């Protein structure tokens, strides 16, 4: 598959950049303060079953609203958090927050789970299974309600070690997904070495599925290959009915994107779950501000 992350890297240095933010030489301290001052918060984006349109899970996405810089995209600050090692306490904070909030959500839907993004730095430089067990001592939950998203490129970095960490996570009953699938250079035979539950097809492929022949073929191929390997497949960044219909035709299991909902507060997720399903009629007026 084509390597597309280069495009994102370019974006990082241009349009996404809040120059006042990027020029600040004291970012690490600012971020450390932000963690203390509770300037970070989480939003959640539904992952919806393509056939039933019921919410299966939600992805937790970090937000930073700084009094000094305004709203900063995670695409910008996560990288700095990784470079400074601050991603480790930030991830710990995310785990604590999600373990706490999931308890309220389970009361509405006992099968729901929440996906948490884990960066490569975290896997490399910390003991993630241990961190999870520590957080569990504080916030007792059943870990079947947690999924971790690891990117494809990060897994290929050290296949043996990562496979070992993943099997430890699986022993804790955690679900595992491969994020941004198609943007790294993974070999299919290696994918089988990892105890993966789900592949998330990167948005850059979904963007083209109604217009670009190559993207159509790639997406169809990823779906059938994933199913052959026993993984579920979710498409990221689905925005239109045409994209949804294509993915449904080719048996993509789940959908995540503005078509159903932007990332929202946990309270909003609970409202969605009370409704139990994305009613396509309601969606236009209530669920989805862009339609
Ligand atoms: P990701 O994990 O691939 O998350 C999906 C991104 O696509 C999110 O951007 C989400 O808001 C956006 N998205 C979802 N559906 C649509 C759509 O239909 N249209 C469009 N245009 N965008 C859509 P977000 O929240 O800005 O996050 C960007 C990236 O930052 C994430 O990509 C992830 O790599 C990283 N990130 C976000 N939160 C965390 C976190 O808590 N920890 C770590 N380590 N990384 C995070
Ligand atoms: Mg993700
Ligand atoms: Mg992704
Ligand atoms: Mg991404």
From TrEMBL:
Keywords: Membrane, Transmembrane, Transmembrane helix. Residues 24-277 form the EAL domain. Its main location: membrane. It is found in: Membrane. This is EAL domain-containing protein. The chain holds residues 490 to 780 of 790 of the full protein.
């Amino acid at each position: 598959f084509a390597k597309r992350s280069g495009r994102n890297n370019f974006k990082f240095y241009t349009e996404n950049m809040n120059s006042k933010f990027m020029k600040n030489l004291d970012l690490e301290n600012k971020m450390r303060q932000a963690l203390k001052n509770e300037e970070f918060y989480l939003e959640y984006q539904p992952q919806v079953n393509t056939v039933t349109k019921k919410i299966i899970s939600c992805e937790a996405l970090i937000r930073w609203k700084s009094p000094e810089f305004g709203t900063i995209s995670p695409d910008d600050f996560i990288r700095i958090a990784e470079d400074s090692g601050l991603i480790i306490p930030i991830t710990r904070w995310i785990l604590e927050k999600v373990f706490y909030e999931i308890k309220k959500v389970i009361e509405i839907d006992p099968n729901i789970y929440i996906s948490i993004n884990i960066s490569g730095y975290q896997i490399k430089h910390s003991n993630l299974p241990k961190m999870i067990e520590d957080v569990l001592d504080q916030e007792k939950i059943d870990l079947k309600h947690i999924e971790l998203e690891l990117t494809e490129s990060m897994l290929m970095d050290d296949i043996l070690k990562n496979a070992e960490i993943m099997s430890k996570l699986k022993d804790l009953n955690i679900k595992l997904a491969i994020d941004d699938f198609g943007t790294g250079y993974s070999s299919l035979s290696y994918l089988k070495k990892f105890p993966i539950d789900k592949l998330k097809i990167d948005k850059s492929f979904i963007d083209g599925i109604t217009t670009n022949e190559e993207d159509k073929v790639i997406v169809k191929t990823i779906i059938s290959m994933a199913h052959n390997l026993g993984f579920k497949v979710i498409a990221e960044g689905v925005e239109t009915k045409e994209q949804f219909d294509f993915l449904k035709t080719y048996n993509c299991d789940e959908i995540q994107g503005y078509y159903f909902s932007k990332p929202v507060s946990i309270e909003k997720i609970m409202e969605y779950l009370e409704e139990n399903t994305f009613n396509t009629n309601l969606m236009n007026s209530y669920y989805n501000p862009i339609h």
